[in-house]
Amino acid sequence: MWAQQILLAVIGLSAGVAVAGGLFSFIVELGVVADFADRTHTGDKLLLYESSVALGGILGNLFYIFGKGIDAGMAGLFTGTGLLAVFGIFAGIFVGCWSMALAEILNVFPVFMRRARIVRYIAAFTVSVAIGKGLGAYVFFFRGW
User: Fold this and answer.
1) 3-state DSSP call for residue 39?
2) Which one, of 38, 31, 39, lies nearest residue 98 by Cα?
3) Which of 81-117 are b and which e, b meaning 16 or more Cβ less than 10 Å from the residue's Cβ?
4) Residue 76 pLDDT grade (very low, low, confident, very high; cuts 50, 70, 90)
């Protein structure tokens, strides 16, 4: 009984570490952190920025898993609404940065299409993706699988 629980914990922890590592390497690979360091002329602190991104993800996961919150009056600086507003601003900045970084790498697809010589089939690929998304949504919402 205990051996099974320990094995499941190790597998779950390993899978979580692999997924989190992939996500953070994707953030670094997109160049979001490096782009900010370049624009603010603070490239010498790049390791600090990358460590802060990783620490933020780790702390966010720990708060989510263990259900611990941050007491809004803990520091005495913010009320509950003020702390929520600050979190909202940071969350908006994070989402905006992600969308801009993804928009910058979208030029990879046309180059790939030309080099792979599949420009003629772009319409077929687009329709296939649309049909797949539609069928997936149908199965998820109406079949309950």
Assistant:
1) helix
2) 31
3) eebeeeeeeeeeeeeebeeebeeeeeeeeeeeeeeee
4) very low
37 within 8 A of 53, measured Cβ to Cβ: no
Contacts (Cβ under 8 Å, ≥6 apart) of 28: 34, 50, 53
> In angstroms, what CA-CA distances link 87 with 37, 78, 82?
22, 11, 9
Q: What are the tokens at 141?
A: 């919402």
Cβ-in-10-Å burial (0-12, 13-18, 19+) of 130 comes to exposed
- Give the residue among 72, 80, 34 at the shortest CA–CA distance from 53: 34
pTM: 0.47
